[in-house]
Amino acid sequence: MALRRVLGLGAALGRRSFCSKQPLPPDFVEALRAVVGAPNVSTATAVREQHGHDESMHDCAPPDAVVWPQAVEQVQELAALCHRCRVPMVPFGTGTGLEGGVNAVQGGVCFDLSRMDAITELSLEDFSVVVEPGVTRKALNKHLRGTGLWFPVDPGADASLCGMAATGASGTNAVRYGTMRPNVLNLRVVLPDGRLLHTAGPGRQPRKRAAGYDLTSLFVGSEGTLGFLTQATLRLHPLPEAVAVTTAAFPSVRAAVACTVQVLQAAVPVARIEFLDEVMVEACSRFSKLELPAAATLLLELHGSRRGLAEQQQQTEEIVQLNGGSSLAWAKQLEEREQLWAMRHSAWYAALALRPGCQGYSTDVCVPISRLPDVVVETKQDLQDSGITGPMVGHVGDGNFHCIIVFNTQDPAEARRVHAFTERLGRRALAAGGTCTGEHGVGLGKRALLREELGQEGLDTLRSIKTALDPHNLMNPGKVL
């Protein structure tokens, strides 16, 4: 327990459980069953614990019950029931978050929305689609196969699309196609008392709007603290005619990151530009059985027409060479490209393999592009000075990078070094004019840094919004604020 306090995280001594502050009211579980049917309600310990944590290191905090609604009307009835009885509610998608966003720290009811998995109202002409919360990004793109369209936001995990909206997810394609925020056109939200809200109006999906407050953006990134996202209208994009991927090795971290900045300044329409430091490259190469030099590396992907792609490749090669990068061999075949991106997406497991038996903690920050080289170099030096195993990887085209810290949770001294490093990293990003999280969200782990980032006025405004929509603090309590 002492190590938990040192880390400020949880789970350092294994997943422990919080207790519900208040037991469920008498006959409450029977009332849940009356709404969704007995097979769609569980109070089994194993099921509750499965829904009491995500992929983060925060302690398991199981809900008192788990329900599986299958229609928005059921979500409304369940929410209204919880609201009347003052029972906390926690939305659950696929459990792939990284900041403890689904942990039921005050108990209550977990709403597992995975069985609401319809894909509706696909409009090829309007480049839009409507999905329910059980639809994952891979399922959507499989459904879109053959249409010439795709949904490009790719956080790595096969997360649910409404969950991605709830956390404001990003990923490898964000430098060209944007994060979830600009790719969500409308949301159907069940408010804490059961009322139904369409953030852009029922059935509306304009590409832009200037009508009143931007309610859609308010709920994107709200992390389940304002309501249940039960449907999302998403912006689709045309598949590129041609795609090329390459890796470039550099003599230093600074050279690799400086190359990133110059590629963006030259307006090369790069689709993905990922950074891996030499520790991460060596780990990924070994894990994925590829042969890449153990050096600071960029993984670049270009999208465009066949003719335009050749020009983009030439521009990229010139900038890479100016920064001392290796000569480029472009992978254009699907199998080759998929192999490289599979390596990148296996970074978490590759990092864990560096120290078998240890646990990992992934943290992220995002800074202005102009400050990126300095911040990355300072962070790299901080890792070395602290004696921490923390390979670096990131979507540097957006100024966003991650440290995957692998450490011995049974060593209190190492745990203290890890906690101190993560605090310094967050504050280093804030000092550079950035944010404490570019895509993971605040959840349980970054609430103190959020206070520093927004200031008291910003935090008070967030509290006012939360109070207006959820006056009894029932929606995912303990998160963000």
Question: What is the topology?
Answer:
Layout: H1 2-7, H2 28-36, E1 41-42, H3 45-50, E2 65-67, H4 72-85, E3 89-92, E4 109-112, E5 119-123, E6 128-131, H5 137-143, E7 149-150, H6 161-167, H7 174-177, H8 180-183, E8 184-190, E9 196-198, H9 215-219, E10 228-235, E11 237-238, E12 242-250, H10 253-265, E13 270-276, H11 278-288, E14 296-304, H12 306-322, H13 334-345, H14 347-352, E15 359-366, H15 372-386, E16 392-395, E17 400-407, H16 412-431, H17 447-469
Parallel strand pairs: 2-4, 3-4
Antiparallel strand pairs: 1-2, 5-6, 6-10, 7-11, 8-9, 8-10, 12-14, 13-14, 13-16, 15-17, 16-17
Helix pairs in contact: 2-4, 10-12, 10-15, 15-16
Pick out its properties.
disordered N terminus, 481 residues, six-stranded antiparallel β-sheet, five-stranded antiparallel β-sheet, alpha+beta, single chain, 37% helix
Could you characterize the architecture of this molecule?
The longest helix has 23 residues, at 447-469. 50% of the residues are buried. 37% of the residues lie in helices and 19% in strands. It is globular. It has 17 helices and 17 strands. It has 481 residues and is α+β, with helices and mostly antiparallel strands. The chain has helices at residues 2-7, 28-36, 45-50, 72-85, 137-143, 161-167, 174-177, 180-183, 215-219, 253-265, 278-288, 306-322, 334-345, 347-352, 372-386, 412-431, 447-469, and strands at 41-42, 65-67, 89-92, 109-112, 119-123, 128-131, 149-150, 184-190, 196-198, 228-235, 237-238, 242-250, 270-276, 296-304, 359-366, 392-395, 400-407. Strand 8 and strand 9 (196-198) form a beta hairpin. Helix 2 (28-36) packs antiparallel against helix 4 (72-85) and helix 15 (372-386) runs antiparallel to helix 16 (412-431).
